[in-house]
Amino acid sequence: MEFDFSDDQKLLKDQVQRFLHDKSPLTVVRRVMEGSETYAADVWRGLADLGALGVAVPEAFGGMGLGALELCVVAEEVGRSCAPVPFQSSVCLATDAVVQFGSDAQKAKWLPLLVAGKAIGTLAVAEGARRKPASQLATTFANDKLTGLKTPVLDGEAATLAIVLAGGPAGPTMVLVDLTANGVSRKRVETIDPARKQAEIVFEGAAADVLGERGAGARQLDTLHQRAAVVAAFEQIGGAEAALYMARDFALERYAFGRQIGSYQAIKHKLADAYIKIELARSNAYYGAMMLASGGADLPLAAAASRVAGIEAYEYASKENIQTHGGIGFTYAADPHLHYRRSRLLALTLGGSTVWKNRLVTALEKRNAA
Amino acid sequence: MNFNDTPDEAQFRLKARAFLEANAPRRERGTQPSRTVDRDAEVIKSAKAWQAKKLAAGFAAITWPKAVGGQGGTPIQQIVYAQEEAQFVTPPGVFDIGLGMCIPTLIKHGSKEHMMRHVKPALTGDEIWCQLFSEPAAGSDVAGIRTRAKRDGDNWIVNGQKVWTTGAHFSDFGLLLVRTDPDVAKHKGLTMFFLDMKSKGVEARPIKQVSGGAEFNEVFFTDVVIPDSQRLGTIGDGWTVALTTLMNERLAVGIATGILGVEDFLALARSSHLDEEPAIRNGAIRDRLAQFFVESEGLKYTRYRMWTALSRGETPGPQSSINKVVSGKLMQDLASLSMELMGEAGMVSGEGPGNGAFQRQWLGAAGFRIAGGTDEILRNIIAERVLGMPPDVRVDKDVTFAQLESARAKR
């Protein structure tokens, strides 16, 4: 049995961890939260220099030519550091979309730029408050032009490339749009996690290019989300561990009623529960990673399980981190809210727990066909 | 990443499977292995015969050194054998406590004479051992035991009561923790002995459990004489010796076998109705099923991570400590909701899959969450040993056991 990452993969993980520990402490998260930057360009450049933005991209397009397992270990460290960089949108969604569905010309044009961090990509699906099925999208794609409004779009301000899901005569279609071209306007949308900027993007006849198959947008979106769900679970696990150990460290320092608060079972058991949820998430995510890397038939089920467990672990660890800190944890000056915000963001970007639990059971029913 | 055996493991698996094919019937798909230790003399007899057969074929005490009669094998071989054996119908494990806990303690703390006399008969299945630690007033806090041993020349005279003793009624020997000095702090006044369970003054009475079975006993000691030569470790060092035993206990109790799981729940949800629709179409049921799945798969792959470490010859990480605390609650919740799917018939003992298996599981889970370390103690262990948090405040640390007892009496 070899149900673990290889030594090389662990080496990559350590390398990314060291870099982010040094160059992307939580002060950088605050810098982006409070300043005018749309993301931490210095951290992003550093990740590009390490090759981390293209681990799963073929060498022919400037990537490292490795695979999903390497992407997962990078994601865990991005999550641990809470880094304010467009990792999920650009690397896990836009870059993966081009790798999975792009034509040779699209790959040749965009992948080297994305891998080098010179282009930033995002995936634009949502159109305001209510979840809509892909068949009811108001954004339309016709005659190579895109018209409509997408909001919120994660990293929509920083992105130079958007993969947009649009309706049209052929049905939902995924298109690729150069956001620096004419017919695109955008403005910032304030969100619960200001360290990760989001935007409303208006397309008024913007030039767009079909990505993949015309009319296959809904299916392609499912594929992308499934793949990203596994990688996101690792990001959530990294963040959850950071939140857990932040709570543990505080519980060792803080005294109440003459004792370290970490000596009370109410605190110990809460943090033990966080540990339990993290390990359950990690074990599910390992299987998800194995299915993702091997193209295994169990991917729909494993991805859903990774997603559900990843959301639960990070949300539990981050909210109980605030609770363990008590009043100070509710202040803006203390750090626990950074993970609280990020955990909610990551729980919503690819569809929430309710959606994925339902998908999980659907996949389970399919596997255990009566 | 893969689940494949190494060539050595694959070869060992084939050997184990061949032995099992030749000696035991294959378990039918969907039936659960029986691990209950009941009171049927025939069952004990067949368990002893099976143990002797396993030993002769080289599949007992796989990880023990050859010098003490084991196979000198690896932990992963032990796991491979257990995986294979689970697919066959074999007698219940009446030797799990003796070979898993008592004899390893004897090997570590006993004399050469003790080993010469006791290890082999335990291995061959001729002699069964039980463990006598817990008492009515000392469960999670086992160092608070009251059973007293007083020195009388070359002997010790024991009076007191033990409880939760699995298999005391059919055991030949018992590992016994007693208090030899009440005038020091509670952990320091303990001593470990072993004794012949047929000694005069030993009486085992069955305890009927919530689940209807009677695997446990209370054991009474009235002026029982134990020779000093049956002491393990030095006088007053019983707690250290007990820790050896307890380390092994969590490994033995931590694996719940014979339980119904997610797939059984799915099958039931498909065949039951809630109001007018199949239960599996109900959103709340789907939500719970997804939760069960995530926990059950999480445990399965946590085990795979542990096996990977063992297969590489490494020490498994601390994540294995989550197994029992998650599985107890999971088996309880899953059984409870399954009974709900049966409607009022869920109350009927023999109803549903496995002729009442969910009902039995629901009853049994209440005990599983307590045996071998309660959910609460296990959370303490994770917090303290994995997360490095402080131990609970111990108000009994700096007082003698006698003072503790008199303070309790005054209250």
Features:
heterodimer; A: 370 residues; alpha+beta; Butyryl-Coa Dehydrogenase, subunit A, domain 1; Butyryl-CoA Dehydrogenase, subunit A, domain 2; seven-stranded mixed beta sheet; two-stranded antiparallel ribbon; 9 strands; B: 411 residues; 3 domains; four-stranded mixed beta sheet; 12 helices; 10 strands; globular
Which strand-content bin applies to the residues of chain A?
5-15%
Q: Assign the CATH architecture of the largest domain in chain B.
A: Up-down Bundle
Tertiary shape of chain A: globular
SS-derived structural category of chain A? alpha+beta
The end-to-end span of chain B amounts to 60 Å
Description:
The complex is a heterodimer of chains A (about 375) and B (about 400). With about 375 residues, chain A is of the alpha+beta class. Chain A folds into 3 domains: about 5-90 and about 105-120, Butyryl-Coa Dehydrogenase, subunit A, domain 1 (Orthogonal Bundle), CATH 1.10.540.10; about 120-215, Butyryl-CoA Dehydrogenase, subunit A, domain 2, CATH 2.40.110.10; about 220-365, Up-down Bundle (Butyryl-CoA Dehydrogenase, subunit A, domain 3), CATH 1.20.140.10. Chain A has 11 helices and 9 strands. In chain A, the strands form 2 sheets. In chain A, strands 1, 2, 3, 4, 5, 6 and 7 form a 7-stranded mixed beta sheet that branches. A two-stranded antiparallel sheet of chain A has the order 8-9. Chain A is globular. Chain A starts with 6 loop residues before the first helix and ends with a helix. The mean pLDDT of chain A is about 95. With about 400 residues, chain B is of the alpha+beta class. Chain B has 3 domains: about 5-95, no CATH class; about 130-240, Butyryl-CoA Dehydrogenase, subunit A, domain 2; about 255-375, Up-down Bundle (Butyryl-CoA Dehydrogenase, subunit A, domain 3). In chain B, about 45% of the residues lie in helices and about 15% in strands. Chain B has 12 helices and 10 strands. Chain B has helices spanning about 5-25, 40-55, 75-85, 95-110, 110-125, 240-255, 260-270, 285-310, 325-340, 355-370, 375-385, 400-410; strands at about 130, 150, 155-165, 175-180, 190-195, 200-205, 215-225, 230, 275, 275-280. In chain B, strands 1-4-5-8 form a 4-stranded mixed beta sheet. Chain B has a 4-stranded antiparallel beta sheet with strand order 2-3-7-6, with no helix packed on it. The longest helix of chain B is centred in the C-terminal third of the chain and has 29 residues, at about 285-310. The interface between A and B is large, with 50 and 52 residues.
